[in-house]
Every structure is written in structure tokens, then in C-alpha cells.
Amino acid sequence: MRLLLDTHTFLWAAAEPARIPRRVMTVLQRRTNELHLSAVSTWEMAIKRSLGKLSTDIGIGELIELGRRRMQLQTMDVTTDHALLVETLPWHHKDPFDRLLVAQALWEDMTVVGADSRFDAYGAKRLW
């Protein structure tokens, strides 16, 4: 299964795994699944950290590298196709980061791993 981690899911998996439901962690730990972190999430974390809204013991780049090693995490770039799909999405969600994550999940036929049930209104597959 190809899984796209929502930003909070990545942060919790890295620093506070107890916040993730046990059945979701089981899926994340299954080596046959592909775990992806979007550049959108990297951008969101970088912005929030620079504004003082996100505190991490290590830099965002180091955190992602740690995720690559520990979780076999793959990073995903944003493509023009992903960005253009956002234009056609209904406004169930106002957060620009989440709208682009939804577009990526739909375009790439991936399952979003996250607690935000607003993703469901788009028909995106979601695990939580």
C-alpha cells in the first residue's frame, strides 16, 4: 500500500508515536507498505518552525533524514499536475497545505494517513 503521511502523522511517528492509534502504527511499520512524505509537509513544517509554532529538538531536514532511515520514508515532490488539480477541488478544506496533500493523494492513488476527516469529503482514501 502506498501511504502519504499527513504532516502531523509524520511528526507524531517521529516524536510521539503513542498519539497514533495502534492499528495505524501497525500499518506504518509493515515493511511491505511504502511511506511517503510530501514536500508540502516539509514546507509546512519549515514555515511553522520559522514562526515559532513548531518546536523540534533537531532541524526539519535532520528529522526527515531520521524518518528515511527509521521508517524507510520516501519523499515526494510536488508536480504541476498535483498543483493544477487543486484548482478543481471543492472547498471542503481551506488549509492550502492539506488541499495540496489531497490533490497528491488523489492524483497518485495513495492513502492519506492522518486524523483529519475533512479529507474524506474529497473521496481520498484515508487511514486513521
Q: Please, could you describe this protein's structure?
A:
It is a single chain. The protein has six helices and five strands, in the order E-H-H-E-H-H-E-H-H-E-E. The chain is α/β, with parallel strands linked by helices and 128 residues long. The chain has a single domain, classed as Rossmann fold. It has a five-stranded parallel β-sheet.
How many structurally independent domains? 1
Strand order of the largest sheet: 3-2-1-4-5
First-to-last CA distance: 14 Å
Number of beta strands:
5
Mean pLDDT comes to 96
Q: What does the radius of gyration come to?
A: 14 Å
Q: Give the CATH architecture.
A: 3-Layer(aba) Sandwich
> What class do helices, strands and sheet pairing give?
alpha/beta
Give the helices and strands, then pairings.
Elements: E1 2-5, H1 7-15, H2 22-29, E2 34-38, H3 39-50, H4 60-71, E3 73-76, H5 80-88, H6 96-108, E4 111-113, E5 125-127
Parallel strand pairs: 1-2, 1-4, 2-3, 4-5
Helix pairs in contact: 5-6
